[in-house]
């Protein structure tokens, strides 16, 4: 596809194709199972089976960080496509159906044989905090050969999730996708995903930032500290803000800050009657922000969109919006 032609899609994302298994639990169960409370831990299939057996009654919902963000964007009326790897199994069929039913194009061929489609076992304590245990499954074998390069070049924004940077094969695929998007004159958005990913691959991320590869960087407060080595939030912002065109840093109940081309904007967290489940809060914040950014809206309004989307998703179980998000935006903006 020739560079700089009009994009067909607003956002194309590459990410983990997983199904979330979400259950409410006690604090005691978190301790009993020796889980990393409030964090995300990569596990193998045997541990996934063990935790599944120990879970209280659960709900199964298609997830994956970048896929969740696309689901939010699609409900906001943007044109989206997803690249990710599922296995040729029942969970893979569920994931593909859910993506397409949301209006997202998803045509990456399924992978034959083992391992199974990935899943995330999420334990939600009474305070709404989620503890995630991720078996990446087929997703960690996404090869560069599975990329539809013409598709990648047809998106205005290529959105990448840090979680998928950890396995070697999809990391190579994402590097190639960045090259394709760059050659087509597209923007690269990157979400750091989790501090442990930065701890393992921070040199890669810092090199991409220094080389001007990332146009929009999403981090939360903890990830920013891990990335920069600065415990002070303002010092962390200052360390990165001048190196990426758009930096978005979320701070949970303290709201969020964005710095773009020297302009700074802040937003308070939207009020929520009761926090039910924080799964997907960062993913939906990114969806809201990008929905405004793609339309060229002011920085403060992009942040406001993000806060609205995050507040909607933490008020119910699951990582994807359930409300009419376009109506919610019209009401609150």
From TrEMBL:
Gene3D superfamilies in the record: 3.40.1190.20
Start and end residues of each Carbohydrate kinase PfkB domain: 60-320
Domain of life, source organism: Bacteria
Cross-referenced PROSITE patterns: PFKB_KINASES_2
InterPro entries registered for this protein in UniProt: Carb_kinase_PfkB-like, Carboh/pur_kinase_PfkB_CS, PfkB_dom, Ribokinase-like
One GO MF term attached to the UniProt entry: kinase activity
Keywords linked to the UniProt accession: Kinase, Transferase
Family per record: Belongs to the carbohydrate kinase PfkB family.
PANTHER family: CARBOHYDRATE KINASE PFKB DOMAIN-CONTAINING PROTEIN (PTHR43320:SF3), SUGAR KINASE (PTHR43320)
Protein name as annotated: Adenosine kinase
Species in which this protein is naturally found: Erythrobacter ramosus
